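Subject line: Sequence and fold of a protein, written as structure tokens
Area: Proteins and the way their chains fold up in space.
Start of record: The labelled sequence and token lines come straight after this line.
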Amino acid sequence: MKKTILWCLLVLLACPGVTGFALGDDYQTGPGDVLRIIVYDNDDLKAKVRISDTGTIVMPLLGRIDISKLTITQITEKITSLLADGYLVNPQVNVFVEEYRSKKVVVLGSVRQPGIVELSGSITFLELISRSGGLDKDAGESATIQRTTSEGEKIIVIDLKGLIELGDISQNVTISDGDTVFVSKAGMCYITGEVKAPGTYPCGNKATVLKLVALSGGFTGKASKSSIKIVRIVDNKKTVLKSVDLYTPLKHNDVVVVPESFF
């Protein structure tokens, strides 16, 4: 009965128009997106442009503009600034996304339909899980999002219990192109970073960081063994345990992060 209630809540939260999570001006554009640009009282500057593979667009008067990885708000501000620099007095610019590029996200673990999901436009974690058939019956209490950023790999931990059972909508993060989403099984732990086989492994009674490292094939040559972190859900809040040793006991749904050594 409890699983049914949680599943119904998940579907309700994931329905477009109910969550209200479309990002609009905060959407980060990318190659393939088509933008509609309107400059009020200047019809000759209106444009419909597709972002190139290098992150640029071409506008009348301004020529080629680099908008790589900018949001709609940032693009609007940049075009406004360029037009105000010797071209127009107090230009009024609006930018809209006419067509969204196709983004690919990998969903693994305890969902009913794991695999690659192709999406258009902005989407939240709950919407993605809904499109993957919902949570499986053996789903644990956490999920992880592995994301590649300009600063390196980033791991985002989602507290499923807090999100679905307690309605903590702050956990319903926006999914980015190229994300890998993993929904843990009950009684499992996740290890990522500088180990030979990152992934999810059993962490029952008396499991330690050392055991999880061994199950994942051991450290790589780049591992910083003195800077290992554990991300743990405590009282429905994410807690980061820093610089833990190899004999630290693990709890179900822990995420062990082995960073790279820079020395």
